[in-house]
Amino acid sequence: MTIGRRFIPYWLLAPGAVWLLLFFIVPMYFMGELALRSGTFETGFVFDWQFSNFPDSLQGNEEQIVRSCWYAGLATILALLISYPLAYAIAQASPRWRILLLFAVIAPFFTTYLIRTIAWKTILADQSPIVDVLQYMQLVPDDGRVLATSGAVIAGLTYNFLPFMILPIYASIERLDLRLVEAAKDLYSSSTQAFLRVTLPLTAPGIVAGVLLTFIPAFGDYVNATILGGTSQAMIGNKIQSLYLFERDYPEAAALSFLMMALILVVVLVYIRLAGTDAFMGEEEERT
Amino acid sequence: MSETRTIRTLIVAALMLAAAVLIAACGGGDTVGGGSDEKVTTAKGGKPTGEVTISSWPGYIDPGKNGTVAEFEERYGVDVSYIEDITSNVQFFGKLQPQLDQGQSGERSLFVVTDWLAKQMYDLGYLEEFSHDDLQTVFENILPAFEKSESDPGRKFSIPWQGGLTGIWVDTAQAPEIRSIEDLFDPKYKGRITFLDEMRDTVPLVMQYRGIDPSNASKQEWLDTIAFLKDAADSGQIRRFADNSYTEDLTSGNVVAAIGWSGDASLIGRESVEWRKPTDACDTFFDQMVIPVGAPNTAAALAFMNFVYRPEVQADIAAYVNYVTPVAGVQEILVKRDPELGNNELIFPPPSLTRGCSADPNPPGSAQDQQDVTEAFQDVVTG
Known about the structure:
heterodimer; A: mainly alpha; two-stranded antiparallel ribbon; 15 helices; about 5% strand; disordered C terminus; B: alpha/beta; nine-stranded mixed sheet; 16 helices; about 15% strand; globular
């Protein structure tokens, strides 16, 4: 009996471990193995520790990698600027409104991602009323367009990943104890000071989570660039897709995917370091 | 205590790793790619029943309630799942290739792909062969010009579906003066032109405009032409490289002209957009029906091939899609039905229309040379 009891924690861990094994470690193994093969598609790819695939896969793709960082970064910042006030407003609304507003945030998710992005293509067509208005407001040059520009791709990314930013921020603002803000004001802080020194630090975990949930998928996205972009808007996801489907250079595609995963991991680690683990642990950390 | 815990963790980790390697070893074959190891088989004929899945291009048949597919279903009692999921040869092949390599057809019994790809698939062992006894209607009605083809002299693995010309779709309301590939590079139309992401269509057309004969072009000439395209893409002249979705930009008026296929009028759906054979270049293609290895219900697929080669059925298809038909007797039927259609040069092209055209040529040289050219072109597409 005692032996059985000792193993209970492992049994409880088992489903998670099996999941991780099947859907992360095994695919990673295959991808790593593929990345070390050489040859052509016609003759077959043979495993021979071809480490040069890694540097080769970066060659000629530097521009798309930098561009992906820019696009994903800008989309994340835009999403944050839109989400924070929005999440704040939702959290402050009456419970009835809150549900309605939250529903409004999630509702677009009932339509698939692809269809929503294609819809934007119609909305932003060169001769659409929206573009006419933008031209009238001089936001777009008279002979200009919205589609097939960097702006369209960044806007698409922002739009598509917005809920991933709103929801975690909302969750952390909702938990915010407003009495702390009141207390700050009682102690003669201005509204700005109260926001910067009380509200913002207390809701930081939501911001950190939202930024990660937005930046990571936006970096690897290729749908927005395919549908809303033109000839000079390809992201690194498009490159990987092209390597797999069009050039059928599987080893290089796998190598590039691996490197991008590593890059993201480094970016995330640095970010967490800078943001501090406190931001993740939130109040719990401070109480101890 | 903590030491035993560390040891235990290590054991668990080692077990997980061992399991991963074991699973990987069971699942993985030794080579990836390099063609199917299965023997080439002959598609089985017989009485068609059950369900059959066909993959084709958008707008290539009338899939509606009174359309050709429904007629086939009714006549043979076969349940057809007709999917229009091919918008680009290379992309479709890229998606399905891993399955074909394992001898699986992705549940599909029939594909429609362009002849150069049909040949490539056959050479890799991804296609089944036909017994001509199962395709009697096909060989009774096929036009003599299509009885043989360069890629399949014995019609062992491909039966012509429809073909056409690659040229320019022009929005005559916006830019009626565009008549040549050269015009597409006029800075006036900056950002209002799309090119096809099919290398074998786009590059030969641009070569001809630049005075290069695609059928004899060297690898360097392919690469030079691609570099020329890259400049046009980087400068913003070319809005994007599109698959079959190029029609959408014409429909919504985003572009004034696009390189495109002669029969796509129904997909564009605008009166003012008209197809023109460029004055300085032309390219032809023919799409083929093929049966992939591992295809279920090949009897129904063969019956479908025979069915669409009945002149009266083919007349419906030709009238709906407006592409070049490979079936004899169709012109007579269409002339009677609708003289304008029956004399349409794009459905029944006179030899003068296609003379001297390139035919979706492959880049020259070894597999590695072709790969280099493909890579260079893809770098332009994903610029």
